[in-house]
Every structure is written in C-alpha cells, then in structure tokens.
Amino acid sequence: MRPSAMRSAAQLLRRRSYSSASGQPERKVAILGAAGGIGQPLALLMKLNPLVSSLSLYDIAATPGVAADVSHINSPALVKGFMGDDQLAEALEGADLVIIPAGVPRKPGMTRDDLFNINAGIVKNLCTAIAKYCPNALINMISNPVNSTVPIAAEVFKKAGTYDEKKLFGVTTLDVVRARTFYAGKANVPVTGVNVPVVGGHAGITILPLFSQATPSTNALSSEDIKALTKRTQEGGTEVVEAKAGKGSATLSMAYAGAVFGDACLKGLNGVPDIVECSYVQSTITELPFFASKVRLGKNGVEEVLGLGELSAFEKEGLESLKGELKSSIDKGIAFANAS
Ligand SMILES: NC(=O)c1ccc[n+]([C@@H]2O[C@H](COP(=O)([O-])OP(=O)(O)OC[C@H]3O[C@@H](n4cnc5c(N)ncnc54)[C@H](O)[C@@H]3O)[C@@H](O)[C@H]2O)c1
Ligand SMILES: O=C(O)C[C@H](O)C(=O)O
User: Fold this and answer.
1) Which residues form the Lactate/malate dehydrogenase C-terminal domain (predicted)?
2) What's the whole-model pTM score?
3) Residue 232 assigned ligand-binding role
4) What integer is the mean pLDDT of 97-125?
5) What is the residue-averaged pLDDT of the chain?
6) Is the predicted pLDDT of residue 271 greater than 80, yes or no?
7) Is 119 assigned a ligand-binding role in the annotation?
8) Can you tell me the ipTM of this complex?
C-alpha cells in the first residue's frame, strides 16, 4: 500500500463513529466515584444527556447497584458499572470525558485543604490510570481541594508524558451556580437569565465572583450588598456543610453543576461554537500557573483562556488577597505529586 493510502486508511480508522440515531458523535463518559453523594445524581444526569452514548460508572464499592438502577432509564446512553482496581482499565478505555468526584467530603469545622491527605493520593492513583488507559480524555476534576488536585493531576500526566493542558479542568461551576442564584435573589431579577463570572480558585477567599460583570446589570445593589454576596458565594460550600451537620457537603447542587460543565465539554468536543464556562485551568492570565476564569471550549478542550475583563476596586483587592493562598495550594499539590 502506498504511504498516502496507508495514511488515509489510518485516518479512517481513527475517525470517530457516529450514532446512527442522533447523528451525534459517540461519546463515552466515565465517572470515578460514581457511587458517592455526587456520583449517583451525576450518573443520573449524565444518563439523561443525549450527547452521551456510553456511561461508565466506577467506584471502589457499590457500583453494580447504581449502574443497574440508572441503566433502566429509557435514554440512549449504555450504562456499565465497574468496581475496584481490577476493573478500572475497562472503565476508562475509550473515554472522551472523565469526571472525578472520588474522595472524602468535608465535615463541619474542616477546610477543603483538610481533605488533602486522603484525596491527593486517590486523585494521583486515578490519574495514573487515566494516563495509561485514556490519555486523550478531557478530565473534569471535582475532588477537593480542587486548588491542589488539579496541579497534582497535571504533574502525574507530565510524568507519564501525556499532559495536555487543554484537557485538564477543575470544576468550579458550582461557584457560578451559587453566584447566579444569590445575585438573582438579591437583585430581584429572574435567575434564568443571570450570569456571573467567578474567577480564582475553589476555596474560601480564592473564590472571587465578579459581580461588577454580572448580567443583567443592576443599580439596585449597594457596595455592602456586593460584599455580602461575595462572602456568601465564597462560603457557599461551608453553608451546606454546616446545614448537613456531619453528613457531607454539597452533592445535589454539585451534581447539577458537574452535569452542566460536562455537557459544555461534550458540546465543545462536538464542535458546537461559543461554549464558554468558568473553570480552573492552566493559565497565564495572572502570574499563577493555575487559575479559574472564563474558558472557551472546543474540539480539543480549552480553545482559549479568556482574560479577567475590567474589575471593580473591590474585586482588584480580592484578586490580590487570594494569590498567596492559591499559590501555596498549587505548590502543595505539585510537591506531593513529585515527592511520592
Ligand atoms: N468541586 C466542587 O465544587 C465540589 C463540590 C462538592 C464536593 N466536592 C468534592 O467532591 C468529593 C466527593 O464528594 P461526595 O459528597 O460525593 O463524597 P462521598 O463520600 O459521598 O463519595 C465519594 C465516593 O468516592 C469513592 N471513592 C473513594 N476512593 C475512591 C477511588 N480510589 N476510586 C474511585 N472512587 C473512590 C467512595 O467510595 C465514594 O463513593 C469530595 O472531595 C468533595 O469535597 C467538590
Ligand atoms: O464545600 C465543600 O467542601 C464542597 C464543595 O467544594 C462546595 O463548594 O460545596
């Protein structure tokens, strides 16, 4: 066979198969930690997503039951459950998108960083397997502390020689979801049309909602209102942890946010134009190597990391104050990944 003919045969083999029913490309989504508080409702929502043709549910326990349950829903995605290390390879092989809510959640009185000792190891092991079995997949990291688990994943992929900064995302959508809800309530505008960019990271003061850029804009909010909205958004996770009183952290709103972000990633992969979401990604828009901001999603993941736009004096101050904490969380993740 001539080299050009061999090339086109190889291209044909690589070409993605298309589902005959929908005309959409076939997409495999894997959820790691699928039997957990976030994992189960996220599995439900991804089963309902028409862009998903195959849904792989992995956990260290209880996935056969979750998969059997979700699989009875009469939507197109084919559901399979996988349990334990022996089945991780099969769970991951061929995945286009891997969503990771594996790991322990907070209890009252804890910070997200208090989860580092357990979750860092879990994320490292899962990412090692991802590098081996689906190195081209997009990764949506939900496991906390996101400010550190994303840098850990990046280091694992670098060591394995598979790192592509366009494909690694820390999921900060819940901060946007909260900022939209709280803003709509305070400004008394219909929540469905509201958007608020949230930048920085995903813990305490590193969560920086940009209410000066909120749409629709309003004159109804005083600077005290904006301060209170900012604090509530930054402490939204703690509000839920305290209300759950020892029974974990946000699961249902997080599953919703994870499903929104996962759907945006799939749309980007499928070539839908103008898909923009906030996410914590490798970035050069500040001096920090990872930073959450608006990101344009495309066929290869991150197409463009968008700048911060014009900030109010209050937001500029918030930006400067968050840099120290965010940097030390990033450094901690990088050091962990390289030490062990
Ligand atoms: N990014 C965000 O905005 C956000 C929001 C909410 C929660 N979280 C984080 O998500 C994580 C999960 O929260 P949850 O409420 O679902 O916790 P959970 O304890 O209910 O569920 C976690 C699941 O992970 C599984 N798991 C543990 N080790 C695993 C491994 N090695 N491989 C695969 N699965 C494994 C557990 O068996 C469990 O089913 C926590 O770290 C939490 O802090 C992040
Ligand atoms: O607050 C937590 O610990 C979970 C999550 O990060 C959240 O924002 O709800």
Assistant:
1) 172-336
2) 0.96
3) no
4) 98
5) 95
6) yes
7) yes
8) 0.99
